[in-house]
Design goal:
This protein is of the alpha/beta class. It has 3 domains: 81 residues, Alpha-Beta Complex (DNA Primase, Chain A), CATH 3.90.580; 77 residues, DNA primase DNAg catalytic core, N-terminal domain (Alpha-Beta Complex); 121 residues, Dna Topoisomerase Vi A Subunit, Chain: A, domain 2. The protein contains 13 helices and 12 strands. Strands 1-2-3-4 form a 4-stranded antiparallel beta sheet. The termini are far apart.
């Protein structure tokens, strides 16, 4: 029995390493087969899927997904996936996908910076510790109900993430949304990081944009990688060769994800940091400070500034 479990584990890891699930299901969201999903909520990554529905929240590998979708047993699911070994997913920027018009982001930016119309958005940002200079630099905006965060790559706006303010949230509406079918081609904000910290080899990694904005505002090079469930393999070309100080949220998903970045599974199986050719440290702090960088910023950021100066072992 132990031998069989070990063999199955080796098979699963081999498929994770060599089958890109985005080749089969695309780099986006599909209907989740584990619950009655009416709006696609199962996000497909390189080696796993994760459901963002509050009714589900499952994370699964390719074998579990195939078995659930196609009612296959383990062996059948393995054979199904083996057909895709070594095939590469196409770029997240497809030829038929065009960047958003700059005027969209510029209109929101002008609204935020206006003397009257953007006051509510500016006040909300100030409450989160985000000041006007960094808002200008990153072209944050205001839609009238949400703060807009443009994702800019190659001087083009590829997508805009919107953070709906609590007072405007409708029943069942997610607090974050973005333009459907538009790519997020780089970690956030890659262009700004390269221009502001061109020689930074030590970089903070956060889950979300606002945490990264706070660190950038404090003079700390930082990137947001899209949430605890996202695989860093997606960003390998951007993260290779750097040292990362990982400040994921101090909740269950964030702590598990950060731990998984560094854990090796078996003698020859690499951690995610190894696979992207990087190294790093997981930084934690007392939970009473807050669960994320934004909540804990008053006590946490001075510690992170000292940690960045040392760039050695975590506190």
């Amino acid at each position: 029995m132990r031998t069989q479990r070990r063999q199955n584990g080796n098979v699963i890891q081999d498929l994770k390493d060599h089958v890109d699930l985005r080749v089969i299901w695309g780099d986006g969201k599909i209907l989740c087969p584990w619950h009655d999903d009416r709006n696609p909520s199962l996000h497909v990554y390189q080696d796993h899927v994760h459901c963002f529905s509050a009714d589900c929240g499952i994370t699964a590998d390719g074998i579990k997904l195939v078995r659930q979708l196609h009612d296959m047993d383990f062996t059948e699911a393995v054979e199904f996936l083996r057909k895709y070994k070594g095939k590469k997913a196409t770029s997240s920027i497809q030829e038929n996908v065009q960047p958003l018009a700059w005027q969209v982001a510029a209109g929101y930016y002008n609204a935020l910076m206006g003397e009257h119309g953007g006051a509510e958005g500016r006040q909300w940002l100030r409450m989160r510790g985000i000041r006007r200079p960094i808002s200008r630099a990153l072209r944050l905006g205001w839609t009238g109900r949400a703060v807009s965060i443009p994702h800019i790559s190659g001087s083009k706006v590829w997508n805009i993430k919107y953070r709906v303010l609590p007072s405007y949230l409708m029943d069942g509406e997610p607090k974050y949304n973005s333009h459907k079918h538009q790519p997020f081609p780089t970690p956030y904000p890659w262009d700004f990081l390269e221009s502001t910290f061109p020689f930074a080899n030590v970089v903070f990694l956060t889950e979300g944009e606002f945490d990264t904005i706070l660190l950038l505002q404090s003079g700390l090079p930082s990137l947001a990688v899209g949430g605890a469930s996202h695989s860093l393999l997606k960003w390998k070309q951007y993260l290779h060769g750097k040292t990362f100080l990982v400040v994921y949220d101090q909740d269950g998903p964030g702590l598990r994800s950060a731990r998984n970045l560094f854990e090796k599974r078996g003698r020859v199986q690499l951690s995610e940091m190894d696979k992207i050719g990087a190294k790093g440290y997981h930084l934690t702090w007392p939970i009473e400070w807050g669960t994320d960088v934004t909540e804990a910023r008053k006590k946490l950021i001075p510690l992170l500034e000292r940690q960045y100066e040392r760039a050695s072992i975590p506190f």
